[in-house]
Specification:
4-stranded antiparallel sheet, mainly beta
């Protein structure tokens, strides 16, 4: 796993990837954390997150979405299917890779 965070004034921009070498009976939600600055508790400052994944659910590329958690340095990751959004962890496979880009406002 690797990532970079850059702060430009009051905007935080993130880029990175995460690799799951081995998984066993994954369930529930996924989240990533350790961002360089706390997401403020202000509506509209949560910004945006873009994910791209592969080797997810036996080689299927998944459409993922997510959101930052207010007052934290963490974001949720969800699986997007036509008409719904759900937990992404059950589809996680060995050697799955998640690339992400994100940005959010501090004030």
């Amino acid at each position: 796993q690797s990532g970079v965070g850059v702060k430009h004034g009051n905007i935080v921009t993130l880029s990175g990837y995460i690799k799951a070498n081995s998984v066993s009976s994954p369930s529930g939600s996924l989240k990533i954390g350790g961002f360089p600055d706390t997401v403020p508790n202000v509506d509209g400052n949560q910004g945006s997150i873009s994910y791209n994944s592969y080797i997810w659910d036996s080689g299927q590329t998944r459409s993922l979405t997510g959101n930052f958690i207010k007052n934290s340095t963490t974001a949720w990751i969800y699986k997007r299917t036509p008409g719904s959004v759900g937990d992404a962890a059950p589809d996680l496979a060995d050697n799955a890779v998640l690339h992400f880009g994100a940005s959010y406002l501090l004030n």
